[in-house]
Structure formats: C-alpha cells, structure tokens
Amino acid sequence: MSPAIALAFLPLVVTLLVRYRHYFRLLVRTVLLRSLRDCLSGLRMEERAFSYVLTHALPGDPGHILTTLDHWSSHCEYLSHMGPAKGQILMRLVEEKAPACALELGTYCGYSTLLIARALPPGGRLLTVERDPRTAAVAEKLIRLAGFDEHTVELIVGRSEEVIPRLRTQYELSRADLVLLAHRPRCYLRDLQLLEGHALLPAGATVLADHVLFPGAPRFLQYAKSCGRYRCRLHHTGLPDFPAIKDGIAQLTYAGSG
C-alpha cells in the first residue's frame, strides 16, 4: 500500500477510534493487559483478585468483600463482574421475590453469588453452577470467606446443560423460584428451555439474565417476548467502569406452561 493511500484512510481510522474508544479500552483491559499479567504472574486474574480480597477485605462481611472487588476492578484490573449498579438491581429483585430456592448459572468469581446470598430470606438456599474448575475454586473460597456455608450456598462444578437435568435428583432442587443467567449469553435460550423442559420453573418464577445487550442475547430475548409464557422487562445499565457501553438485565416472570 502506498503512503498516499494509507494517508487517505487515516481520517477513517481516527474517526473509528474516537467513536469506539470505549470498546477499544475495554478490549485492552480485558484481553491484552489480562493476558500479559497472566503470563507474568502465572495466576489467573480471578486468583489475583482473591489474593487482594484476602489482604484488604473483612472476613464474614459480604458487603465489604463486594466493595473490595469493586475497588480492585476499578483501580487494579478490570474484573468483568456485575458491578455495583447492576448489583443494586439484582439485590432489590431478589429481596422482592424472597425465593426459597434460587439458581445461578455462571458463578464466575462469586460476586453475583454474594449479592443473591445476602438478599435471600431466612432459610433460603442458592445453588450456583460454574463450568470452569479453576474459577470455581476461587469462587468457593470467596463464598466461604464471606461467611456462607454449604447449606445456604452450594457450588456445583459442571456444564449447565449437564447439571440442569440432574438438579432434581442429585441436588434436590424441585423448583427454582428465581434464576440468574450470568454465564454465556449464547447459552441462555438453551438453558431456559432446559429449565422449562425439566419443570424446574414454577408459575410466577423470576428469571434474570445479565448481558442481554452487550455482548447480547437476541435469540433469548426474542423467544421470551414471543413464546407467550413470560412477562418481560428490561433494566438498562452500563458496564462497570464503562457506562458509555450500554447493557441491561432482562427480568422475566414465568406465567406457566399452559
């Protein structure tokens, strides 16, 4: 390519960088810098975050642990977690629903797990599912550090599509009054239909889905709006530390299979 042609494209490149600068910063923080630090430290970012929590947070205080993770994500390494804005929405919805049994698909580092567990009614139970064993190990330690025992929060390591069919028989979950989908948006529709097919959603159950706008779950949203079995509402938010990148939490209320 000649210098003249390259210069001709320069204004376009500059325009794209300015317009999509927030996405470019997100890419740098979540992929490039994270990969470099993983190589240099020999630890995953979630493991580094937990080490920070151990030295800065108060054991047995879920709120302080959550605040410490927020500080780590804002000032150290971007955690790609739910964050405080979405967290307030999640806690409010859990408190309103007061589920006897809740299910989370996608534990990740345990941030949203702590949010749900804090908001459960007395005697409430949470099952949380994480497919990656190494990430699950970090989450397990974080959950126990916050003071939640296995009777309140049980972490299951496995693929959601394999765990859901076994929830009733192996984990004694006959119904999930509240479900949080926070794993992979492309799996939301499949897993929602699995929950329906195994009769794990009672009438009136609340299904919450994170990241439905970014990176997005269009097939899931289309199904929820068109199948006639859900009342749908979208809570608009931005990504933690990147408010210009719009995202949202979908709130579905299950009307039943009839």
Automatic annotation (TrEMBL):
Catalyzes the O-methylation, and thereby the inactivation, of catecholamine neurotransmitters and catechol hormones. Required for auditory function. Component of the cochlear hair cell's mechanotransduction (MET) machinery. Involved in the assembly of the asymmetric tip-link MET complex. Required for transportation of TMC1 and TMC2 proteins into the mechanically sensitive stereocilia of the hair cells. The function in MET is independent of the enzymatic activity. PROSITE patterns: SAM_OMT_I. Its EC number is 2.1.1.6. Its main location: endoplasmic reticulum. InterPro entries: SAM-dependent_MTases_sf, SAM_O-MeTrfase. It is found in: Endoplasmic reticulum. It catalyses: a catechol + S-adenosyl-L-methionine = a guaiacol + S-adenosyl-L-homocysteine + H(+). This is catechol O-methyltransferase. Keywords: Catecholamine metabolism, Endoplasmic reticulum, Hearing, Methyltransferase, Neurotransmitter degradation, S-adenosyl-L-methionine, Transferase. Belongs to the class I-like SAM-binding methyltransferase superfamily. Cation-dependent O-methyltransferase family. It holds the Pfam family Methyltransf_3. The keyword S-adenosyl-L-methionine applies. The keyword Cell membrane does not apply. Transmembrane segments: none annotated.
